[in-house]
Amino acid sequence: MTPASVRKRKPKRDDEPIRDLLFILAPPRSFSWRFCAVLGQHPQMYALPEMHLFSARTVGEWWDLCAKATFGMADGSLRAIAEILFGEQTEEAVRSASGWLKRRTHFTTAMVLEVLANELRPRIPVEKSPSIVYSIDSMDLAHRTFPEAKFLHLVRHPVAHCDSVHEAIDALRESGATIEHHWLLELANHPQPLPSEFGGDDARVLDPQRGWYALNMNICNFLECVPRNQQMRVKAEDFLDAPDKTLHGILHWMQLSASPLCLQKMRHPEQSRYMGLGPPNARFGNDSVYLETPSLHGSPVTQPGNKPVHRRLRPEIIDLAQKFGYRRGLR
Amino acid sequence: MLGQHPDMYALPETNLFTAEDLAGWWQRSIHVQFRMTDGLRRAVAQIFFGSQTEETIRCAAGWLWQRSSCSTAYILELLIDRLIPRMVIEKSPSTVHSEDWLRRTMEMFPHAKFLHLVRHPRGYGDSVIKQLSKWDGKRREAPSWLINLASYQKNPAPGRALDSSTMDPQKSWYRLNMMIGKFLMSVPKKQKLRIRGEDILTEPDKVLPQICAWAGIGADKKAVDAMKHPERSPYAFVGPPSAPMGNDHLFLADPYLRPARAVPHLSLEGPLVWNPDGKGFAVDTKELARQFGYID
Questions:
Q1: Using CB atoms, which residue from A2, A98, A104 is nearest to B74?
Q2: Structural contact between residues B201 and B262, judged by C-beta atoms closer than 8 angstroms
Q3: Is B110 on the interface with A (CB under 8 A)?
Q4: Which of A146, A236, A257, B248 is 20 to 30 A from A248, comparing alpha carbons?
């Protein structure tokens, strides 16, 4: 066994706790990878791909979940470990990363993130796996293991969210892909509606506003336990319409430099090491659509009201959207 | 021998891959009929505590118990980390007794190199029978691992191998080598090499540089000369009373390189000493031996 195949570099010191870590909490289809990649281009931050670590307590449990997942759940972690610990994202490095993770089945998933955060010091890792918002326990685990981490709640207009989910499902159907257990379909059905509510009509069951509500409520409930100064809410539309102003606010909250040079760098998320597809043995790890059109304004933004509303928004959804600051396109 | 190369380090038999985590490894050691933990305790004592004494062996056991929840592969990684930049050599015979254990080595260390060491089936069989015969007349029964090598039963009953009707070590030679061969089919070409043990013993100056070249390390005269002194390994002697083994007891009793031990030009034809009816090797055994380069 050669040392290089075990570890490319000696680990950095890890005797200081990880204080600075940013979690982006957002339901899928919220521009979260684009947002994360923009933040990651700040010289003091580093955007990780979707690692889905907090869906499990230990790496062993995490591997079990990966084996059952209907998407390339391990890809993001394999790419991050290959890049950060083995210096590149090649098939070889991904194999090394896989071995590294397999040897650590006894690690807590938080320890894996800690190892990476140590390697990235002094840069602040930005984590944004959408899976974390499906369970308050997962978010609690992240907060419990990194008690000083910051949490940024990224929201999107419910109508735009619904349109986006429908479009993605339509595109998937047109591509001929099997969608029976696809995460998009589960998102559109989340949480599972009662048969009596929809009369068993599959076509009508697809109602992404339920997922929008359930996942955003998960986040809101979780954030009630997080100190005020460690949380912030941002509207994805504000970020896309006025990125500099929004980023200024975020950087101020993060107590990071908002110099013109930093903002200039953040206009180039396409320079992220995780933009684009990975090697064949770890292809994804981020929004697959955005991986192919990586720029700040790479794909059209669905504005609320531009598309037909598939179902009327329910009152609780309108209430929550208003709480998030949305006024237009709710009725 | 390989471990005496300045760029390599030979571990004793750690038997790590026979379990997923260290708790399982300790558990397993209770049920086997050989001193399964000696090698790893000696290695940890030597590598982390600087020597192999009763005291450091105790410290090593504590160190391993503290890490009961760790995966066994992680323990090996800790040893490798400590031995950087030397290439670590692991050679626990137990690993080749299960497809899962073999697969685990590759899964955990995807870039590891695998050297398939083969021996002539006659030399192998004679050696197994010779070892087994030493238990004749002893009060204790032969250990199940030895009985298993002699008769290759799934659940060997102690003492059964002494029944000559079930004794046929070519079965274990064939099945274990076949299992290794099957596993190696999943290993990239540049990561595997097959070597005949007899060639290393009789032509070390020719074969050892070949192994070094494949492993990507130098093979100057000084390095090759060093490799001809396996007796200089820190594990080439009987360890302290609480961990005496960790390697083949014959090697521990006489760890010097003795080319005369290899009996060249063994035949694949003719009767087998353990077979009272005068039968020779099975067709499959001969075929596999020929693939390994053993010709009549």
A1: A104
A2: yes
A3: yes
A4: A146
Would you state the structure tokens that stand for residue B71, as one six-digit string? 């995966």
Q: Is A21:A74 a contact under the CB 8 Å cutoff?
A: no
- CB contacts of A2 in chain B (<8 Å) are 87, 111-113, 216
Query: Is-contact B50 B56, C-beta < 8 A?
Result: yes
B138-177: pLDDT as tens digits: 767 788 888 888 888 665 555 454 566 678 999 999 999 9
Task: Decide if B296 is inside a domain.
Answer: no
Assembly ipTM: 0.82
Q: Where are the beta strands (DSSP E) in chain A?
A: 22-25, 45-47, 124-127, 150-155, 231-235
Which percentage of chain B shows pLDDT scores above 70? 94
Verify cis geometry, omega within 30 degrees of 0, for the bond prior to B85.
yes
Chain A CA closest to residue B77? A6
Full set of structural domains in chain A with CATH: 19-158+215-289 (3.40.50.300)
pTM: 0.85
CA pseudo-torsion sign A159, A163, A164, A165: positive
Residue of chain A whose alpha carbon sits nearest to that of B188: A92
* In-domain check, residue B42: yes
Give domain status of residue B203, yes or no: yes
Decide: A73 and A63 in contact? Cβ < 8 Å: no
Q: Is B112 near chain A, with CB under 8 Å?
A: yes
Burial zone of B81 (CB within 10 Å; 0-12 exposed, 13-18 middle, 19+ buried): middle
Q: Is residue B87 part of a domain?
A: yes
Q: Which amino acid is at B225?
A: D
Q: Supply A287's token pair.
A: 């929004």
> Which CATH number fits the domain that encloses residue B21?
3.40.50.300
Q: Tell whether omega for the bond before A27 is within 30 degrees of 0, i.e. cis.
A: no
Which chain A residues touch B90 with a CB distance below 8 Å? 1
Domain coverage including residue B147? 2-291
| Counted domains in chain B | 1
